[in-house]
Amino acid sequence: MGTAHAASEEVRELQGKTDFSSDQIEHLHWRFKQLSGDQPIIRKENFNNVPDLELNPIRSKIFRAFFDNRNLRKGPSGLADEINFEDFLTIMSYFRPIDTTMGEEQVELSRKEKLRFLEGGRKEERKEGRKERREGGREGGKRQRKRK
């Protein structure tokens, strides 16, 4: 993360954006470097080598969540090819435990946000799939009529 002074400024900035403590940020930076092979970015391919995810039943959802542009606040749809450390922290902040000091309404909003995070891309995929099937069905029907 750079020189000591620059690093401490960067850590404070990241704390403000993610609510992680400086110790948590340091630990997550270590994990990021481990996943990226000590590179400044993590590519989609890096996730293929994570043993902890190998047998995870929601592996594909986790993978998609890490690279979903909406979760990264980089666009309304699509997947990024790579993420940097700040992106990684943003995504990891979704996995933080729910704060027990929150009110009931805030807890419910937090739970919904976590579900939206994991399911976000799925809704868009289903919409696109339905649209393609409808459009494909019309074209397919036209082709069949022409053949008769």
From TrEMBL:
Protein family (similarity comment): Belongs to the calcineurin regulatory subunit family. CHP subfamily.
Region called Disordered, residue ranges: 120-148
Where are stretches of biased composition, namely Basic and acidic residues? 120-142
Identification of the protein by name: Tescalcin
Q: In the UniProt record, does the keyword Membrane occur?
A: yes
SUPFAM superfamilies in the cross-refs: EF-hand
**One GO cellular component term:** cytoplasm
